[in-house]
Structures are given as structure tokens and as C-alpha cells.
Design brief:
Helix content is about 40%, strand content about 20%. It is of the alpha/beta class.
Length: about 350
């Protein structure tokens, strides 16, 4: 039985227990909703935040011999193959699965269940570009007049940073993406460790000096939702250049070695239930994967890209490590794209 009613009717665990959920720093759900789950299930939730999604997955892998949590949430399709290959997750076929959009069930072993999805996309500060031209293509970003305006996240430590890197590979090709990034580096692109640093420190909307940022297609909706002023439209916009955005699906999985398997399964079922799924959009600014979950009105400002870049999890698994390494050599170490390409052969 799905939803909160099913949880209330299900027998509570014999003894109150604490369930630790390892998650990225952006995880958030309404406190009252969490309290309802805790009261109905007899499970006390403890959220252990470990930075960006990439850092969170790395922590789970590094501690697999002595897990620090029972459940892992927030690794995405760019990290899915890495998570599965690490052997850190238990299979669990939740009874909520039939209610989820099947296109996001990317793991046939059910070790990773899809919770939400969104689009990593370029955002721009409308005030800065009021009387200025915006770039029209992904390649335009590497031009000097735009590269110095852009802040991106390091793909080695940031899931949106990795998603944007993957978009450039998919759109510009194995060779062209390196030339693009060399152009960005020479033009003065700024690199931050993670999304929070890029968006809340470097982005000009929040006091920084960069009016272009790699963020999410839902960010303008969030800006309007949280604005202290009464606005008729968001102060930021999406720059949905063809091939510049990337579909990101986030997953939850039960960690091997958990001493609370029953509690972990209850939590996963709840996270995929309608009440939790309908809370996700205005808490984490992503779309629920549940088919019958309603979206809030403010999501009319959350645009869906018409031409997002796409790479299969299999191709990501085969190439991501090398792409990140090559990106590091070109962008952070200053090697030429040509030299890095020659080193492949």
C-alpha cells in the first residue's frame, strides 16, 4: 500500500531505532513531514551530509568496510555506474516502483531506485544582461567576452560540474570538448569546488562577479519562490543553449552492512511515496519521479530543455574517469588540448 496511509497502517518496528541516511548537502524535506514519518514508523532519522553528490558517494565507497550510514541518497546517473561497480548497495524492489516513471528506472538490479530528476543548465543574471547580448551556442561560451563571465563547478567534486562536462562531451565530441575547455580556461572561466560555492559566492545575483553559472533549470523558479520582494518574474533566467543542459536523475539505495535493513526499506518506501514526492519540488527544486505527484504552481518557471545532451550510463562508465582527468589537465594544470589528445594514443 503506497503513501503515508500505508506507512501508518503498517506495523511499526519492534524497537525504536535510528536510521542514518548519507546524503549530499542539498537534501531537504519538510520537518513536519519527516516528523510524521518518524512517528508512524518508529524510526528516528539522522541525516549525515557529506558535501556534493560526488563527495558523498566517495565517502560511502571509502567506508564500505565499516559503513557510516544505512542508506545512501543523492548519487545521480553520472555516478550510477561507479556506485554499482563499487558493490556498496543492496538490491531492494520497493512496492512503490510501479508508481515511478519507468524511463528513470535505470538499474535493473534495483540497487538504485530513482527519487527525483532535473536538468543541470546554465543560468544568467538578468540584471547584468539587461542591455547585453547573451551567448547563442555552447561554443560561444569559450569566446573571451563570455568565458570571463562564467563560473563552473569542478567535475571531480561536483555532480552538476560533472553533468556539465558530460554535456560538453556529448555535444562537442571526444576531441572538441577539450578545445572548448581550453578556450574557457584561456578566457578566464572560474572553477569552484561545488554548486553552493559557485551559486552563492561567485554568481553575481548573490554578490559575486560572474553573471553566468552552471546550475539547474529550476533555479529561476526557486529564486522567485524564496524572494523577499514581490516579484512577477525571477531575477535569473535559463540559458538553454542546444546541448548545454544535462538530465540528472538522483537515486536512493540501501547500503550493504546496514544493521537496520527493515528500517532502511521503510525509509526508501516513504521517500518514494506520494507525500514525500510532492514535497520534493519546493524543497530540493527537482522533479519527483512518481507519476501521480502534482507539481506546484511556481514550477511554471522551471523550464524543461528542448535539446538536452544525452549520454548512456554505460558510456559514462567507460569514459567519465578519463574525461575528468583530461579536464583537470587542461583546465587546472594548463596543458593544451592537443597535448592531452596526443597522450591518449
Amino acid at each position: 500500500m503506497g503513501g503515508l496511509l500505508g506507512l501508518l497502517m503498517a506495523p511499526a518496528l519492534a524497537q525504536p531505532t535510528t536510521l542514518t541516511v548519507l546524503t549530499h548537502e542539498s537534501f531537504n524535506l519538510d520537518k513536519n513531514l519527516i516528523a510524521q514519518f518518524e512517528q508512524a514508523s518508529g524510526i528516528k532519522l539522522r541525516f549525515l551530509k557529506a558535501g556534493d553528490a560526488g563527495e558523498t558517494l566517495n565517502r560511502a565507497i571509502l567506508t564500505k568496510a565499516a559503513p557510516v550510514a544505512d542508506v545512501l541518497y543523492g548519487f545521480d546517473n553520472s555516478l550510477l555506474s561507479k556506485a554499482l561497480a563499487a558493490g556498496i548497495l543492496e538490491p531492494y524492489r520497493s512496492p512503490q516502483l510501479p508508481s515511478l516513471r519507468s524511463e528513470f528506472v535505470l538499474d535493473p538490479t534495483y540497487r538504485a531506485l530513482p527519487v527525483d530528476f532535473g536538468y543541470v543548465a546554465l543560468n544568467y543574471d538578468k540584471a547584468h544582461f539587461k542591455d547585453k547580448a547573451l551567448p547563442q551556442t555552447l561554443a560561444d561560451l569559450a569566446r573571451p567576452e563570455f568565458a570571463k563571465l562564467l563560473v563552473v563547478e569542478n567535475p571531480a567534486t561536483s555532480s552538476p560540474g560533472l553533468a556539465f562536462l558530460l554535456a560538453t562531451v556529448a555535444t562537442l565530441g571526444e576531441d572538441g570538448y577539450l578545445d572548448f575547455w581550453e578556450g574557457l580556461r584561456k578566457g578566464g572561466v572560474r572553477v569552484e569546488k561545488g554548486w553552493s560555492e559557485a551559486y552563492y559566492t561567485a554568481f553575481s545575483k548573490n554578490g559575486g562577479d560572474r553573471p553566468l553559472v552552471v546550475s539547474y533549470a529550476t533555479s529561476p523558479a526557486a529564486e522567485l519562490f524564496y524572494s523577499e520582494k514581490k516579484l512577477t518574474e525571477p531575477p535569473t533566467g535559463n540559458l538553454l543553449l542546444p546541448g548545454s543542459s544535462f538530465l540528472q536523475v538522483e537515486f536512493v539505495g540501501i547500503l550493504k552492512g546496514t544493521k537496520q535493513p527493515a528500517a532502511a526499506r521503510k525509509f526508501v518506501d516513504w521517500l518514494l511515496s506520494k507525500p514525500a514526492q510532492e514535497n520534493i519540488p519546493t524543497q530540493m527544486w527537482v522533479y519527483p519521479t512518481r507519476k501521480d505527484a502534482a507539481l506546484p504552481e511556481v514550477f511554471k518557471w522551471a523550464e524543461v530543455p528542448k535539446e538536452p545532451a544525452q549520454l548512456s550510463p554505460q558510456r559514462i562508465a567507460q569514459g567519465a574517469e578519463r574525461w575528468v582527468r583530461e579536464w583537470t589537465e587542461v583546465v587546472l594544470q594548463g596543458r593544451s588540448a592537443l597535448a592531452v589528445r596526443k597522450a591518449r594514443r
